[in-house]
Amino acid sequence: MKVSDILRVKGNTLYTMHPEESLQRGIEVMAENDIGSLVIMEHGDLVGMLTFREVIQRLAKNGGVIGNTIVRTAMDDHPVTCTMETEMDEVRRMMLDRHTRYMPVMDQKMLMGVISFYDVARAVVDSQNFENQMLKAYIRDWPEGKEPVAAAQAAE
Questions:
Q1: How many independent structural domains does the chain possess?
Q2: Does the residue 31 lie in any domain?
């Protein structure tokens, strides 16, 4: 399974901000849209990611006050990215290695979407459920007179 498979199911709604906008506005956009991340774009280029993790870290640094903080001072300015062709196993490895929950999907310099750890987990569960259904259907349709190998070995 590839990242393109997840984005096809998820859809392509994207939320972006400019790095000079206020962190307060970024928090409002995330809350209004029930999202955990914003892609930070400047002059058409990806320059960072703002997630609830960066917001909490900034709040902790500022004694619980947002004040006049701008997004640039809080964002992750080196987010890990993937492409539409990246395999899900590789995405899971990158997310776990970097402790990231959100990953921009890029095609060269064009932002194609964002996938979350939730999206990846859901795709894995859906894939496993489909595989389980196929295996159960295969077992139900087992040819007469042929025993499954495990059952034949258990009988010996």
A1: 1
A2: yes
* Cα–Cα distance list, 116 to 26, 31, 64, 103 (Å): 18, 17, 26, 6
Instruction: Dump pLDDT digits (tens) for 96-155.
Output: 999 999 999 999 989 999 999 999 888 777 777 767 777 777 777 766 666 655 554 555
At residue 89's C-alpha, the angle toward residues 84 and 92, to 5°, is 90
3-state secondary structure of 89: helix
CATH number at residue 45: 3.10.580.10
Contacts of 102 (CB under 8 A, 6+ apart): 36, 37, 49, 51, 79, 114, 115, 116, 117
At 102 the three-state DSSP class reads strand
Residue recorded with tokens 């984005």: 7
What is the distance between the alpha carbons of residues 115 and 104, in angstroms, rounded to a whole number? 7
48, part of any domain: yes
Q: What is the pTM of this model?
A: 0.77
Q: Look up residue 137 and give its two tokens.
A: 């259907």
Domain limits for position 89: 3-117
SS3 41: strand
